């Protein structure tokens, strides 16, 4: 990750734990809940543990805040601005 930070533009695509779980289930993967009755608490702990590391990214976008289209447009604008590319 330090190599990425040094040589690339990095973006942390964040989501609320509930959205993470919902997206996994919508993709047809029910393993997280089948493996543990504490799946949501496990996910929250994992995300909290990773947050200090991921927060080093140059940019952060909360994907829970907007629709897929809105998130994509924000990601596109963010990267293009960071790379000083025209719209």
Quantity of strands, as a count: 2
User: What fraction of residues sit in β-strands?
Assistant: 5-15%
Structural class: mainly alpha
Helical amount: 55-70%
Which sequence of SSEs, written as H and E, runs from N to C? HEHHHEH
Query: What is the molecular shape?
Result: globular
Q: Termini separation (Å)? A: 28 Å
Low-confidence stretches: none
Number of helices: 5
- Largest sheet, strands/sense/barrel: 2 strands, parallel
Give, in spatial order, the strands making up the sheet with the most strands.
1-2
Give the overall average pLDDT.
91
Radius of gyration: 15 Å
Chain-wise SSE layout:
Blueprint: H1 2-7, E1 11-14, H2 17-26, H3 31-35, H4 39-54, E2 59-62, H5 68-82
Parallel strand pairs: 1-2
Helix pairs in contact: 2-4
Give a structural overview.
- By secondary structure, the protein is mainly α.
- The protein has 5 helices and 2 strands.
- Strands 1-2 form a two-stranded parallel sheet.
Quick summary:
The protein has 87 residues and is mainly α. 60% of the residues lie in helices and 9% in strands.
């Amino acid at each position: 990750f330090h190599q990425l930070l040094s040589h690339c533009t990095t973006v942390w695509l964040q989501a609320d734990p509930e959205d993470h779980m919902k997206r996994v289930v919508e993709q047809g993967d029910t393993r997280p809940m089948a493996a543990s009755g504490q799946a949501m608490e496990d996910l929250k702990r994992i995300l909290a543990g990773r947050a200090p590391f991921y927060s080093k990214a140059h940019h952060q976008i909360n994907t829970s805040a907007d629709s897929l289209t809105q998130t994509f447009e924000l990601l596109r604008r963010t990267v293009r601005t960071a790379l000083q590319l025209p719209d």
